[in-house]
Specification:
By secondary structure, the chain is of the alpha/beta class. It contains 22 helices and 7 strands. Strands 1-4-5-3-2-6-7 form a 7-stranded mixed sheet, with helices on both faces. Helix 19 links the parallel strand 2 and strand 3. Helix 6 packs across helix 17. The protein is elongated, with a radius of gyration of 30 Å. 48% of the residues are buried.
């Protein structure tokens, strides 16, 4: 009897789906055929996708990176006071001498857009690696979620503070922020298509307007030496010792760390960059060179704006205006645009800022939709619906609403959480490249990257101690991800987890030799490979099950490589050992791999295979735990259950015998 003995159902008139069914079909549209394959808008483009020049892709990164100019100068002034320009210089040094070299290395070693998390996954395999990746995903979720809520909150501040805004909008920050978040969700529910062209226009206009605002502000500062003197006097009076000024600037620097955002996004969009004709998938040198140009140019542009905007705002804006409720609260450059260039230009600047902040939220949502399906379904640690875009959008939207309500749409209050997510990702990247350099024996680079790693570790710890909100939010994300992940892994434990099964020539010859006879296979532990072990196993199976001609019986051995993996490709090799024929394969677990091979053998031979096990000794609950985490344990009953779920037709299901 073959697996193809039943004819497919005849097509007939199908009833129209009910509203509930149609809604479910719409909600789950786009689930890929196998988990772990889906790539979000920042992932690998489809085959028909046309790549772009690096500077156009830089504008896509700039949605996240450059948009921080909307609130960074105000947060810096509020956090560091008169020291803001000096602390910003420290930030720029760390950006150019630390983060930039780190992410250039990440771009070389993770050129498919998986970023530093994928590097650490490769460097730290098995369950500890999976747990570490889940923790990093929690911090990445913090980074992206706070990007959505903080950007929406700052956009609402620009709406309210505009002089032409209706009076009824004043004091409605939370409501306006929630509207921006809802609009963002609506765009993705409808079907968000990455529009680099729109990003180029937004970034070009926004940076152009900032050049005008910052240039005008610096000109006013130069023309008003009294204000410069006032700032310098306040600086030297409060901190008379130059060494103390530098020391305090270093201590204050962690509060400004949100200005480092954008690097992880910069490597995530690498697949969008046009390479050279000679690029290969293994060595896309042109794409890597383009990514290096993207990262360097973006860092230089942002560094110039950070220093000049911080200097201009701290000199020209009264300190009281940076406080909560002040006109420069969360919008320092917009304040200068209105004050120095008139309400008309200021309104244009507000519109541009609102647009890029809202699009930065879209970029962050796209990043989330890329990260979650890239890892969790592949780990077997996500419900099946997590591979579809729309359910994830709804989940992330609900979380964004909760964060907005908790922080009351306050830009400054969310700065610590945002900085925590950004710093942990950059720290993990620095550690990843340090470990990579160590593995390759590059002593000079080991020292350099280790120093950068220590600097970022200090910054992360200092920021987390001073502003623990980000750590608390990240801890909630991590806890939620781990709980959902392991519940999903348990729920999906009995799935067929093979991406494909392939028999080599010898293995195919073994199974083909059965011809029309019963195909009998004995499960064997590969750790016992002496002749006596095979002989005793065959004799015992023959006595228990009356095998008949034992000369045609085969053995199957599953070698467990990494039990933390979920999906694996099964390459079955035919082996002769001590005169016995053996089907040998490597997998992440024994029962699921065995079931997948049995079904494949059934399909290629047309015969229903019989497999013979011994009962597992020991506590059943302990053995089930061994199966879930070590890939062994209750092999016989689990194999039978996997077969039962994979093949509902009893007469076509491989036989499982236990003695």
């Amino acid at each position: 009897m073959t697996s193809l003995s039943n004819a497919p159902a005849e097509p007939g008139a199908r009833s129209q789906p009910t509203g509930r069914v149609a809604f479910r079909r719409w909600l789950l549209e786009g689930i890929p055929e196998s988990s772990g394959k889906r790539q979000g808008p920042h992932g690998s483009p489809d085959p028909n996708h046309k790549p772009h020049t690096w500077w156009r892709v830089m504008c896509l990164t700039g949605l996240d990176y450059f948009s921080t100019l909307g609130y960074q100068p105000a947060i810096a002034a509020l956090a560091a006071g008169v020291l803001a320009p000096l602390a910003t210089v420290v930030l720029v040094i760390v950006t150019l001498a630390g983060a930039l070299p780190v992410y250039k290395r990440v771009a070389r070693e993770s050129h498919r857009g998986a970023g530093s998390i994928a590097m650490l996954e490769r460097l730290l395999p098995r369950w500890w690696g999976k747990l570490f990746v889940l923790a990093l995903l929690g911090f990445a979720a913090t980074d992206f979620m706070i990007t959505i809520t903080l950007s929406a909150a700052d956009a609402s501040a620009h709406v309210i503070e505009n002089p032409f805004a209706p009076a009824f909008l004043h004091g409605q920050n939370i409501g306006i922020t929630l509207v921006f978040i809802a609009l963002l969700a609506a765009v993705f529910l409808r079907g968000f298509k990455e529009a680099i062209g729109i990003a180029v226009v937004l970034v070009a206009v926004y940076l152009g307007l900032n050049v005008v605002v910052v240039g005008t502000a610096l000109a006013h500062a130069i023309g008003a030496p009294l204000q410069v003197n006032d700032w310098w006097t306040a600086l030297t009076t409060s901190h008379g010792n130059p060494i103390m000024i530098v020391a305090i600037a270093l201590l204050v620097f962690p509060r400004l760390a949100l200005g480092l955002s954008g690097f992880e996004t910069g490597v995530a969009v690498m697949p969008q960059i046009k390479g050279r004709p000679g690029d290969t998938d293994a060595n896309p040198a042109g794409r890597i060179a383009g990514a290096h140009k993207l990262l360097t140019t973006a860092a230089l542009i942002m560094s110039a704006f950070l220093i000049t905007s911080s200097l201009a705002t701290i000199i020209l804006i009264p300190a009281a205006e940076f406080q909560s409720g002040g006109k420069a609260d969360g919008r320092a450059l917009a304040y200068l645009a209105h004050a120095l260039l008139g309400e008309g230009f200021g309104t244009v600047y507000d519109i541009s800022t609102i647009a890029i902040l809202w699009f930065a939220g879209a970029s962050a949502m796209a990043g989330l939709l890329n990260l979650v399906p890239r890892y969790l379904p592949r780990f077997g640690m996500a419900p099946s619906w997590a591979a579809a875009v729309r359910p994830l959008v709804l989940v992330f939207t609900v979380i964004a609403i909760i964060i907005t309500l908790v922080f009351k749409a306050d830009v400054n209050a969310q700065g610590g959480a945002y900085a925590t997510g950004v710093l942990v990702l950059i720290t993990s990247a620095a550690v990843a490249v340090t470990l990579s350099a160590k593995r390759k024996g590059e002593r000079g680079k080991i020292i350099g990257f280790a120093i950068v790693s220590l600097a970022f570790i200090y910054t992360t710890v200092a920021n987390s101690i001073e502003r623990p909100d980000g750590l608390k939010i990240a801890a909630l994300f991590i806890m939620g991800i781990i709980v959902v992940s392991f519940l999903s892994r348990i729920r999906r434990a009995f799935e067929l987890r093979a991406t494909y099964v392939r028999l080599d020539d010898a293995a195919a010859e073994y199974v083909a030799a059965a011809d029309t006879e019963t195909l009998r296979i004995i499960a064997h532990d590969p750790k016992h490979d002496d002749a006596g072990a095979y002989r005793r196993k065959l004799e015992q199976a023959g006595i228990d099950n009356r095998l008949g001609d034992r000369g045609k019986v085969m053995f199957m051995e599953v070698i467990i490589d990494d039990s933390s993996d979920f999906e694996t490709a099964l390459e079955v090799t035919g082996v002769q050992r001590h005169g016995y024929r053996i089907l040998q394969l490597h997998a992440s677990n024994v029962p699921n791999a065995t079931a997948a091979v049995l079904l494949h053998v059934r399909d290629v031979t047309g015969l229903i295979p019989h497999i013979y096990f011994r009962w597992t000794e020991g506590n059943p609950l302990l053995n089930m735990a061994k199966f879930l985490f070590l890939g062994e344990g209750e092999i016989a009953p689990v194999t039978r259950e996997v077969l039962r779920e994979a093949e509902p037709e009893l007469t076509q299901r491989p036989w499982v015998h236990v003695g």
